[in-house]
Amino acid sequence: MAKRDIIKNQFHTYKDTYTGTNVTRLTEPDHVSHHMYFYNNMMTSDGKKLLYSAELNGERQLYLMDIETGDAVQMTEGTGVADYSGMITADDRYLIYRQGERFMKQDLDTGEEECFYETPEGWSAGGDLGPSSDYKYMSIVETRKDTTAKRKVGGNWDAFAENCLAKPLCRIVYIDMEKGTSRIIHEERCWLGHTQIRPIYGDKILFCHEGPYDLIDARLWCINIDGTGLTCLREQPSDLIITHEIWMPDGESVAYVYKETTGKMEENIRMIPMSTMKEEVFMNCSPYAHFNVAPSGKYMVGDSQGHDVPIHMLDHSKEKDRTGEVKNDFIYIVDVEARKEIKLCYHGSSWRAIYGNSQDTHPHPFFTKDSKHVIFTTDLEGKPCLYMAEV
């Protein structure tokens, strides 16, 4: 298949057994498909088209799906397409994605492309792209290749601890996507990830020290875009999991999931306002692996993990638990004003890294533009598929 080819997805709608929610499977379980990384902008402004990845004919490419008809246009071709990296610019004009070490901008109308940045020789680019709200700038992490751990074959978690302990030389790069210029913001011997430019303000970059929770010094870090003001946002003892931090849409606070592995085993959503830099407990929650915020800021959504064992420590040698037990693998909606959690539907993901990428079975839920649906990924019915639940 090639760029601009069209595939036709067959939708299947059902009522969730546990909540009665209407859920529509958007792709078919005979091949792997998933949406982009959960905080990427992957829908057009009118909410009618969805950017996702599908593995067909042995390779993963990006597709743009009409969520009313299921028709999807192939947007990329060739090897090395980073299947979680794509995003649509706020003005709906361009698709931004990474292919190998090249960062591409594709005109959605004409299909014309240009490379606006390429990682230098000897370095490798990470998968996460952190755009500014106006999509003029982007932050990424680059790692010097000769400092990383020797990764084992397969899209599993074997190298997660090894790469953390190797303390690779990483740097945060700030890119002007319009001018094609760049500068290095920060560099250190530590595995860095998840750079996110502060919404609205655009003055800071949130990033993490990546690796198992009991091996890193602290996960949450922030730095000004001029490279000054490096700040650890929160101390992190070795028995505490802090995960999947995000900016609130107004850029005023950083939010994240806090989970104790000893003592009271407390789990809740917490925030750090930039005005005070003092942590606030927002509300207790189910054991979310990831959570996201609606564009309006009125709702949150989380994918609960029924296993007590952290994802990277699961036994990934088998496909799924076959006991028939229904664990707390549900999608939850949070009413921000009421601080109330509501069970939306069962995602039933196996959480297993067996399809080629360790992220493939992660639900990674996010809201559609009008907040009337939540889209997520699960391998509930076969290989990972895209699902859309009515809120």
- Multimerization status: single chain
Radius of gyration: 20 Å
Shape: globular
* Main beta sheet strand tally, sense and closure: 5 strands, antiparallel
What percentage of amino acids are in beta strands? 35-45%
Helix content: under 10%
Average of the residue pLDDT scores? 93
N→C terminal distance:
35 Å
Detailed description of the structure:
With 391 residues, the protein is mainly β. Among the domains are: 1-116, Neuraminidase, CATH 2.120.10; 119-236, no CATH class. Helix content is 2%, strand content 43%. It has one helix and 31 strands. The chain has one helix spanning 158-166; strands at residues 6-8, 12-15, 22-25, 33-35, 49-56, 59-66, 71-74, 87-88, 94-99, 102-107, 113-118, 123-125, 130-131, 137-144, 169-176, 181-189, 192-197, 204-209, 220-224, 231-232, 240-247, 253-260, 267-273, 280-284, 288-293, 299-304, 330-335, 340-346, 366-367, 373-378, 385-390. The strands form seven sheets. A five-stranded antiparallel sheet has the order 1-7-6-5-4, with no helix packed on it. A hairpin with a 4-residue loop joins β15 and β16. The chain is globular, with a radius of gyration of 20 Å. The relative contact order is 0.13.
